[in-house]
Amino acid sequence: MAHVTIFGTGNMANAIGGVFAEGGSSVTYISAEESGTAPIVGDIVVLAVPYPAVAGILSAYGEQLAGKTVVDITNPLNFETFDSLVVPAGSSAAAEIQAALPQSSVVKAFNTTFAATLVAKTVGGAPTTVQVAGDSAEAKSALIAAIAAGGVQAIDAGALSRAHELEALGFLQLTLAVREAISWTGGFAVVR
Amino acid sequence: MAHVTIFGTGNMANAIGGVFAEGGSSVTYISAEESGTAPIVGDIVVLAVPYPAVAGILSAYGEQLAGKTVVDITNPLNFETFDSLVVPAGSSAAAEIQAALPQSSVVKAFNTTFAATLVAKTVGGAPTTVQVAGDSAEAKSALIAAIAAGGVQAIDAGALSRAHELEALGFLQLTLAVREAISWTGGFAVVR
């Protein structure tokens, strides 16, 4: 399928890499220690790092990311207050990243699915569904195909401007989990 | 249980009224034609009307709404473009209504559950769950109890500021349904 490079080695990075690998894609990881020196070999590049770590990757790899699909999975919360996002009102982390990478196709995905639900492929009996937003139809369909090949559902959630709503959903879901109104194996399931 | 007055007689008004009635609450409706003349008898007042119709209700009933719980179910979309909300970035319809009704306890609820899922009480095999946000713990717990008595799950989704995220979720859900990525009997299920 695809060649995927994943920045990050945490729970989300591993869960996402597992889905792609199961779908037959080649997957390479770049850890925080390797970031800045290891080359990007994939055509799909997943930023599976906390939002504050994204800026360093963009400044180190901006030229290498040109022409590639860059997948932003972040939920840019203010983790001190858990009451707001650190991106401008009405905007999104994905929009900020796209502005910094005008020659890349930025896609928002995986920010509304907890790691455990990507591994289990189900959430509350419903199939886990990755919501994908972006302005490049080609980038979205290639990503959706690579996710689906790994046994996880994926749907087109619209233009990159919908990343604002996806990040609001991710924000709300995180606050519910932290307040134990839902569990980390639950969350918002997409029922079709 | 509670005394509920519902503005509106559409699908959502009927579905919401059905839940409350089944839980033993008394339910009265005020139609668009009666609005401005019919008195509000309930302590919980549900604005089950399109967002553009809210302003007229507030101006006609502002004084009568003092001291009451006002439930905002709206999704304030720009229905011409389906690409934005008509409330200021970072704000919400619920926050605008609270600002107009400083003596009422405004609660956001029912904007993330399609009517069919309130009637069926399930969505994709999971129990339908109403997300309730507001700044009055008392108003929220009374509302949650009245909904739960009607056989539908309800959870506290946080302060009224979370209405921004709930409206983003409702917005995204509507765009997915309009684009037929999900059905009107589906949507975002809350898996606990």
TrEMBL record, chains A, B:
Protein name: Diguanylate cyclase
